[in-house]
Amino acid sequence: MNVAPGKNAVSTIPFDHARVDRLMEEAGIDVLLATSKHNTQYLLGGYKFIFFAAMDAIGHSRYLPVVVYEKGGPEHAAYIGNRMEGAEHQNNPFWTPTLHAACWGTLDAANLAVEHLTKIGKGNARIGIEPAFLPSDAYTLIRKALPDAKLIDATDMLERMRAIKTDAELEKLRIASELITDSMLATVRWAREGTTKTEIIEQLRREETNRGAHFEYCLLTLGASHNRAASPQAWKKGEVMSIDSGGNYHGYIGDLCRMGILGEPDAELEDLLAEVEAVQQAAFSKVRAGTLGGDMISYAEGVLKKSKVAPYTDFFAHGMGLITHEAPFLMTNHPVTYEGTYAEKPLEKNMVLSVETTMLHPTRGFIKLEDTVAVTETGYAMFGDRGRGWNRGGVA
């Protein structure tokens, strides 16, 4: 399917195209070839094809969505997708003036991208690509078909594009966090003595799904263990539970951690969780537009360093949105491998952060809080701000 340009397409662009144009100019990019699910979703205003939501492989190849966007030329934008996406367009038309819903694999998608670039006069332009999300066969085809083009890594530019959330994105992130928090607290109440980790994780999946979230993972510990993988280990009286889950709402991530206890927490457990909370609050106190990201990190780390639990406790913060680790990147290789390029940059309004303090106590187990906050002009707004103390199990 080749849909001709629509007369109202440019007026319905679902992102700040002036800002994207500016970021492209700074990166030396004339035209984008976005091929990751998260960036094509962003550029299409939230759309993601449900048929390939859980997997990409089909036949001998894989699904490869492509959004072509020319700097300063939104009238030349195109979406290249699977043949079945023509029906999606009939029900909810894509904004891109051109649509090719014609592909079953990577090579036909790459061929159509080359054809479109040539048609709009960008066959020898500076083309921004996503190396980590462009299969080698598609890359080789594009490289050979457009020998005079300069292929530029657009990863950083695209991350910067998504760093500042719109009000609509913030609302999806808020809902995702609320749904995940509600689901985790309900699961803690449901679990009883003898309930296994595998059963608890499966119950959480049901809770999130029934609330309208898409379950992605659960990292769970019971008792003194620091192992967060599913297993037949059963919850015992007096033991702690750490329940850390990621799920999404319309593609936007909810990622939080809460603590459970089977029985009543003793004085030591109350004290340990309070130490974790003190570090969290220290980080929150420095979150506001204009504060250097690195200053927030160093202040929280300083509070942790003075704590009696410092030898076995870690602090971490990262950006999140359509994926669990995205701009702003605040820490280098801690623990995910990337550079903390935003440490020396000010936080900006509508950035979203995940803030987490993790204690690997030698005898009491895995004690952690993870929270999601949106940066505001004067501070922050927290999403899913419930259940941050000891939540009792077996009371549902």
TrEMBL record:
Pfam family membership, one: Peptidase_M24
PANTHER family documented for this protein: AMINOPEPTIDASE, AMINOPEPTIDASE YPDF
InterPro entries reported for this sequence: Creatin/AminoP/Spt16_N (IPR029149), Creatinase/aminopeptidase-like (IPR036005), Creatinase_N (IPR000587), Pept_M24 (IPR000994), Peptidase_M24B (IPR050659)
Origin: domain of life: Bacteria
Gene3D superfamilies: Creatinase/methionine aminopeptidase superfamily, Creatinase/prolidase N-terminal domain
Tagged with keyword Lipoprotein: no
Entry protein name: Aminopeptidase P family protein
A GO MF label: aminopeptidase activity
Keyword annotations from UniProtKB, A to Z: Aminopeptidase, Hydrolase, Protease
Domain Peptidase M24 positions: 171-377
Domain Creatinase N-terminal: 18-164
